[in-house]
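Two records follow; treat each independently.
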Amino acid sequence: MNAKRIEIKKINKIISISMILLLGLCVMISSASAAGGSGTTGDPYIIENATELQNINNNLSAYYILGNNINLTGVTWTPIGNSTNPFLGDIDGKGYTISDLVIGSSSGSNYGLFGAAGSGAQINNFIMDDCSITGVNSSVGILVGTIVMSSSVHDTMLIEDISIQNCDMNVSLTGDIRGSFVIGYINSYADVEYNHVVINNCDFLSASGNIVGGLVGSVNTNSTLNMISCDIENSVIKGSDSIGGLVGRVYGATVLTGSNANIDDCTIHWCTIVGSSSYVAGGIGKVENSIYSVANTIVSASCIKGTGYVAGILGGIV
């Protein structure tokens, strides 16, 4: 009987040690992914370095906050989220800066800090400084390449209190680039809110690319864009057709399936906006089968050039 009790105690001890080791391993894995937190709305993951920022790809639906400035010098960046698995979570930058992001590719699409974001995502309150994207094909933005929705059910995606400064995009390939400093492409059935987004001292150069804007490249069918209190200063935007200081193109196959762009209290100041072809404007380059509203928006001391359909606020409606 005593021998059996001793044996049972040994087994229980082994089980206890195993559980402790397993718990320790789980803590180590969690610590390797974030500096703290559990990823919930009340206890978000804390991101303090480049590795932890990249590891957001391991959980695209969690809640995150930045706990430090993050420098990406020398990091071969894999954009967070893609068109199949977009970022659906929430990140609050707490006013910190993400700097020196570099993305270079000879082909492909959906490039930026976030490759793709979708339903309910919120990206808030941080600065992007001294970042660059070169050589890519389409749907590119320093912040987000593309916004995608998983179904035809509208859901809001929020971008708020974001500053992008001293950044360069040199997209030399031809075709529908659909690019901007913030979001390259807003796909169908997306409702996107922009609040207090500032661009300063940035260049977007695309020798022959179409659909380029300062804040959004293209807004596609059945989508809504609400843009409030956004500013672009001391920046250059150059492309071919459908070039806008704020938005390159707002598009719908027909008026019934068109998009809705509402812009209020925005400024474009000391900028150069150039299209080698037509539909060039300080506000929206081209509105196609869609509805738009632009109020309290000022284009001042800016240079706007193109060969046809050139204007301060709206390049053309077709």
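The next record belongs to a different protein.
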Amino acid sequence: MSAKRLRLYAKSFLHESLLYSGQFALFYLVMQLIIERGLFFSNPGHVGLLAALVLQTALLAAFGHRALPRAALTFIVPVIYSLFEAFEGSAALFNAAHVGFWIYAAISMLLNVLKLGGAKKERIAEIALVALNVFIFVFLYFYFDTWKDLHGKDDLTIFRIFSFVPGFLGDPTHWFIIAGGIVLAVTVALGRAEIAALKDRIFALFGKYVDRQVRDIIMREGESEARRLDLFVLFSDIQDFTGLCEKHDPTSITKMLNVYFERWNRIVEKHGGIIDKYIGDAIMVVFGLSDSAGACGSGVAAAMAMRREWAGLRADLIAQGLPVPAGFGIGCHYGDLIFGNIGSDKRRNFTVIGDTVNVAARLEAASRTENSDLLISSAVYDRLTDIGRGAFSRIGEIELKGKRASVETWGYRESPHAAAPR
């Protein structure tokens, strides 16, 4: 594990223990340590609880970002502690603090799973977790304050302990602790709500300039190390864009490009790809970061979906009084790439580089001369299903600019592009 990944893991471990899943056990252990002092480690139950807390926190820090692992792993502490408590009889099992472990685990699990459901739910869950943690602090304070004046374990069960609440509230000092906890909860909750709102704004703005998947990688990993991956690259370019620009003003050209790229964005997102960059009127798309095995199928499906959108796109542009391109070409290739941060210390581009990109771009350029607006390499064709291959006809070996070896190429059978109005 690299030093950076180790730091990220340590941060996640700390958050789990202090904020999200370990506070009940942590408060309980701290209070027991204060009371028992040197005898703490001679109690097998407390040592087992400490070990369970470390194990649960370690696993949640590694896998707790997914709902199912979190739902299962959050109950490690109550399960292990119950095994120790079972040897002490029913009074221990129904002890208010012991039952509290299960209740806290269930509520914190639900709130942490809720956090995974989007920005709004995450803010609600964060505030609720703050309130929960302050509540369990006050509850454990009440539990231990009651415990020090009692002699029988039966009085500490969940059925009897709350009969001591009136006496507990009769002490003004306890009201000071409760009021302080409430003030602290409000202060922390407001702070975390502001942080969550700022995070949402950064994510929203950042997501407009890089693909969401790339944004999430950068936000999660920061200066991510470069990796070699086998990926599908789609390159598309508007036909005769220079001539179009000569006939129309910059504002209408810009609006047309925004409408055109919005269609691409919707289709690419639907098929699980990422838009690596816009280059003037060209777009470069990558498939395979999340599903390498299905990259070619998804990429070709996206290309064909955009072709089917052409008639509707032309109609939208005409309705808005915007320029209508003659069409667009698409080139697709699959192969080895370097994926990572490229650039200077002050400005970086999270992108892919390699010969696979060059081949895809050259295939797109060749679409203008090969009587097909969608060309794919044999590397892509070989990874398609029989149904997918049926949509393509073999063009043969073609020479690409800048390439010594020719590339076996396949073209889509028919073009959707009708003549555009002048």
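Discussion point: The radius of gyration is 30 Å. How would you locate this feature using only the token line?
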